[in-house]
Amino acid sequence: MYNAAVFDLDGTILDTLDDLQLALNHTLDAHGFPLYTLAQVRAMVGNGLRKLMLDACPAGTPQPEVDSVFDDFCAYYAIHCNDHTHPYPGIPQMIEHLRAAGVKCAAVSNKGDFAVRELMELHFPGAFDFVLGQRDDIPRKPDAAMVYLALDSMGVSRDTACYVGDSEVDILTAKNSQIPCISVTWGFRDPDFLAEKGAALLVDTVPQLEEAICQG
């Protein structure tokens, strides 16, 4: 059994895609920019909100306007981040089981820290030992800094921890952190894509994920 599991947020424990797409398109429409389908947004997320805004704005958009789009998105998303967002079925119960078994749980995300903390408090109040979203003073994933900060805060060495995510960013984050990665297939990337990106262990269901963590 692993002593700790570090989870990604979007696409791993929370289904946030609808709210991300709606907030993105609301902001882009206000700036007169083209909108994106749910499938397009699904493929774009994972590298943080600033990168999402940069990718979403038309090529050649001046940086000051990209910054304005980012600010407007954050203001709108702060209000509407939980309109349709919900945990994937079985995730809250799995976290309860892991904590009862002595496994410490952390959530680290490239989503802005303001939204991460609000969503975690709404959907997992008190359920995680450590929570961190993207902040300007900490390198974002796939840098290992967020994972190491989580492990240090929980008093766990990387030799006894695993990382759980749904994207190629998560696979690389785990590699950079030198801990095993468990990739879930219900999130924002397809299983074949994850396998191409080097996923070592794919799980299709929450019970399979719980078993993988508990077996270590």
TrEMBL record:
Alphabetized GO MF terms: phosphoglycolate phosphatase activity
Superkingdom of source: Bacteria
Taxonomic path: Bacteria, Bacillati, Actinomycetota, Coriobacteriia, Coriobacteriales
Organism in which the protein naturally occurs: Leptogranulimonas caecicola
SUPFAM superfamilies (UniProt xref): HAD-like (SSF56784)
Gene Ontology annotations for the cellular component aspect, listed alphabetically: cytosol
UniProt record, GO biological process: DNA repair
Name of a matching Pfam family: HAD_2
Protein name: Phosphoglycolate phosphatase
InterPro entries for the chain: HAD-like_hydrolase_sf, HAD-like_sf, HAD-SF_hydro_IA, HAD_2, HAD_sf, PGP-like_dom2
